[in-house]
Amino acid sequence: MIKPDGVQRNLVGEIIARFEKKGYKLAALKMARPERSHLEEHYADLSGKGFFAGLIDYMASGPVVCMVWTGVNVVLEGRKMLGATKPSESAMGTIRGDFCVEVGRNVCHGSDSTDSAEHEIKLWFPEGVCEWDACTNAWIYE
Ligand code: RTP
């Protein structure tokens, strides 16, 4: 997910491009302006943290872009591409390492396990995702 700061800072194309160039395939994409209750459900495991209210304010402050990416080890590799949660600990070359400075404005979210990915896909895409096979030649040749 591209968080509200990533959308406001016009980083949507940059982030999508990184995943496409890595070799992952997009299975679902939408812009959403989630209710606070939806965000509270998404971050339910953090409800006891002192930063929880601020996190929900931040996530509710503007539209987000939700995506499902598929491919080999996409959850683990995708988290590496995002970088560490705290930008000060994110390696240069990662999305957070390159584009942000504060943990409370860290541009993107990625599921941290396949179980949480499955849970989050159901939460954010109850309508289901698009299954398709790449058919590059068909778009170039008749
Ligand atoms: P995310 O769920 O957004 O991908 O982040 P994460 O797994 O890398 O980190 P997590 O611990 O689940 O924290 C979720 C988000 O909460 C905000 N946060 N703020 N002020 C703070 O100390 C603090 N710590 C975490 C960040 O936006 C983080 O991504």
Automatic annotation (TrEMBL):
<protein>
    <recommendedName>
        <fullName>nucleoside-diphosphate kinase</fullName>
        <ecNumber>2.7.4.6</ecNumber>
    </recommendedName>
</protein>
<dbReference type="InterPro" id="IPR001564">
    <property type="entry name" value="Nucleoside_diP_kinase"/>
</dbReference>
<keyword id="KW-0418">Kinase</keyword>
<dbReference type="GO" id="GO:0006241">
    <property type="term" value="P:CTP biosynthetic process"/>
</dbReference>
<feature type="domain" description="Nucleoside diphosphate kinase-like">
    <location>
        <begin position="1"/>
        <end position="131"/>
    </location>
</feature>
<feature type="binding site">
    <location>
        <position position="106"/>
    </location>
    <ligand>
        <name>ATP</name>
    </ligand>
</feature>
<dbReference type="GO" id="GO:0006228">
    <property type="term" value="P:UTP biosynthetic process"/>
</dbReference>
<feature type="binding site">
    <location>
        <position position="96"/>
    </location>
    <ligand>
        <name>ATP</name>
    </ligand>
</feature>
<feature type="binding site">
    <location>
        <position position="51"/>
    </location>
    <ligand>
        <name>ATP</name>
    </ligand>
</feature>
<feature type="binding site">
    <location>
        <position position="3"/>
    </location>
    <ligand>
        <name>ATP</name>
    </ligand>
</feature>
<feature type="binding site">
    <location>
        <position position="79"/>
    </location>
    <ligand>
        <name>ATP</name>
    </ligand>
</feature>
<feature type="binding site">
    <location>
        <position position="85"/>
    </location>
    <ligand>
        <name>ATP</name>
    </ligand>
</feature>
<dbReference type="Pfam" id="PF00334">
    <property type="entry name" value="NDK"/>
</dbReference>
<dbReference type="GO" id="GO:0006183">
    <property type="term" value="P:GTP biosynthetic process"/>
</dbReference>
<comment type="similarity">
    <text>Belongs to the NDK family.</text>
</comment>
<dbReference type="GO" id="GO:0004550">
    <property type="term" value="F:nucleoside diphosphate kinase activity"/>
</dbReference>
<feature type="active site" description="Pros-phosphohistidine intermediate">
    <location>
        <position position="109"/>
    </location>
</feature>
<dbReference type="InterPro" id="IPR034907">
    <property type="entry name" value="NDK-like_dom"/>
</dbReference>
<dbReference type="InterPro" id="IPR036850">
    <property type="entry name" value="NDK-like_dom_sf"/>
</dbReference>
<keyword id="KW-0808">Transferase</keyword>
